[in-house]
Amino acid sequence: MKKIIGLLGLVFMMILYSCVDNSQNKEIHESKQTIIPGTTISNETISIYDIHNAKIGEIERYGILVLTDDSIIYNRIPTGSVDLITEMDYYRYIFATKEIIKLGTVENFSYEAKYDTTVIGNSLYMMVTTGEISEIENRTLHLYKVDLISNTMSVVFSEEGGFPYNTMTAVGDKLFMIRVNPAGGSELEVYNTETNERKIVKKFEFNDKANIGEAIRQITSDEKTVSLLRLKMESGEKSRLYLDVYDHDMNFLRSVDVSTIPSHSTDSPENELRQGVSNFVIANDYIYYANFSITRFLGEIENDSLRSIMDVNPEFEMASESVKSKYSGLFYQSFSKDNDLYLLNYTDGKLRKTTFNADDERYYIVNISRNTNDNLLITMKYSHPDTGEELEPKLYYVNLSELEFS
């Protein structure tokens, strides 16, 4: 049975303790979710508001939203509601005109790695899996391109049996992609979006039977460097996590042992080190790390060691960015009545704080996206902890300058 994008968190929780694709698929298969007969999966109509609580738009969506400089890219179930998702429509909402444009449809849809959606120039790139996500022989990984000029989407390349949770980052006009191999190990592949050339530039070996070797957990980049999170497992299942830094030509610069990242968040740091990583940013030696389990870390690299900037909990998240900010990182406390936001200046390390509330203060922040113009798309919801009473979800489209940080 197919995995659906709404079960994103559950899927990741199933694969946390594995390092390579064979082990991960075994756990997914054994833990496969059964959809109860008679239940339905439905789109959600959500209104968009400005900072003054004035309604400025509305969309019907399913799943997580992606913010570009002038629009929202989002998914929608073609029939509104289904018992099992077999196809997914993609749409674009333009803020200036309130126009809604259909981009295309993915048949035999299974999963999309929205956490790594990346914009280069006038194109948006996303990893989409079709087929049976838990079965290597029956799934296909696709790199999709959304042309933001022609409002069309197309497949750049497809890989039968490809790993659904691959990660990528932009370096100029190139996509640097970490690809896990079904046979074990992983590769760093560079895709030139101008020439369509693809090239493997690094390989990392992992022995699945012995559970020994190296696996790349995430990749990120800034104006000068490319950084890899490299998990190294030795005999006895001893694990270490390293931050390897390269220049844009993949010349090695340095390696920092960051194995202390989970030490304050759990009684089982060894297990946390092995988790898949949902968000990883390096900027001027400031580092944010979030895995698909409970570990979050915000800190700074000093003398090849880590220093925590503030204590954080599993609900501490970073605003998603399809183009990484050069200047600051925006963080928020999700599912919290306080609705705290934090802004970290990448130049001087100054951390400032504010709060953001809807017109009804029961609403809490679920997710925030940020674009290169510092516009924010804030998803807010409310569900009563005892009765389950829900308020209609809201989207707020505001600029960072409209928030008062101190």
UniProtKB/TrEMBL annotation:
Domain of life according to the entry: Bacteria
Protein name, as recorded: DUF5050 domain-containing protein
